[in-house]
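Progress narrative, work stream C.
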Amino acid sequence: MERGSTPFEEQLREIAESLLRMGGLVEETIGKSVRALVDRDSELAREVVAGDEEIDRLELLIDNLCIETLARNQPMAGDLRFVTTAMKIAPDLERIADHAVNISERALELNEEPPLRALVDMPLMAMRAQQMVRGAMDAFVRRDADAAWSVIKMDDDLDHRMEQVFRVLLSHMIEDPRTISRALRMTFVAKYFERIGDQATNICEQVVFMTSARVIKHTMVRDPAGGA
C-alpha cells in the first residue's frame, strides 16, 4: 500500500508547482515581448504589459506559501534550502517579467516611428535569454547543479552579444543622426535582455546552493572545479 503525502510534502509540492507555473509564464512573456518588437505588434506588446499582474500575483503567492511552510514546519537541511531558494527565485522571475514589460513598452514607442534597417542581434539575444531562463528552471526542477553551471556559463555569450549590438547601433547613430531616438531605445532593449541573463544566472546560483549548500554568489568562482 502506497504511503500518502504528508501535509508538509504537499506544501513543498505546491511551492514547486507555483514556481514552475510562474517560470513558464515568464518564459512565455519574454517570447511575446520579442515578437512584439520584431513584428511591430503593438497589440501583443500591450498584452505583455497587461499580463504582468498575474506574474506579480504568483510572486506574492509563493512568498506567502514559503513563509507559512517555514512557520509551520521549521524544515531542516535540504528542505530548508529548497524553501529559501524558492523565496529567492520568485523575485528574480518577477524582475525578468518586468524586463519583458520594459521591452514591450519600448516596442510600443518604436512602432510609432519608421523601423531601423535591421534589428541586429536582438532576436538572437532574446533566444539566448529564453534559453537561460528555461535552463535555470529545469536545473531547479531536477535539482541539478551541473545544469545550473551550464546556464551560468552562457551569460558571457549574452554579454558579448550586447556589446556587439551597442557597436552596431552606435554606427547607425553616427551615420544617420535621424536614427538616434530609435537606436537609443534599441540599446535599452539589448540591456534588458542582458539583465534577463543576469537574473537567470542568479537563479542558477541559488540552485547550486540548494543542491550542494555551496554559496557561489559574489565570488569569482565560475566553474565546478573551482577555477576563476
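Work stream C, second folded protein:
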Amino acid sequence: MGRPFLRREGASLPVREATVADIDALTRLVNTAYAVEHFIYDGERVSQAECADLLTTGKVLLLEQDESLVGCIYLELRKDSGYVGLLSVKPSHQNQGIGRSLVTIGEARFRSQGRKRSELQVVNVRTELLEYYRRLGYREFGTAPWPADVPTHISCHFVKMIKAL
C-alpha cells in the first residue's frame, strides 16, 4: 500500500507512521487535544510511556504541516476488526476535515488488511464526539466501564461504536 495522503485545500499532505522519535510530540498533541476533558478527570490523557506502548500494539498515523504535528490517529488490528483510538487534532486546526480524513485513511487501511468493521469507544459525556462519529457512519453497540484506577469528577463510562467496512 502506498503512502496515504490527506487532501486539503488543493494540497496533498503526507501521512506517516509514528516512530519512537515522535513520542514527545505525539504525547503533547494528544494531551493538548484532550485538554477539553479536564472536567472529567485530572491530569494528562496519555503519558510518554503509554504513547510508546501504542507503537508496539498498533500504528499511530501522523499528519504534519509546516514541520509541526497537527493530527494523529491510533490504529490497531484485532481479530476481524480494526480499532480506532486517540483521534487528535491540534485545536487551531480543528473543524478543517483533518479528523475525518484521518479516520477515512484508517478505515481504508483496515479494509486493505481484510477487516470487515471498525470499532472505537467514546466517553459518554462527550456527546459532541458521539454525534461526530455518528456522522461518520458509526453506531452504538454497547458500553464499557471507565477504568477503576482513573478517578473522575463525574460519573461516566465508554460508549462502544462500530462501523461496517
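The domain at 5-118 is CATH 3.40.630.30 (Aminopeptidase). No further action is required on this item.
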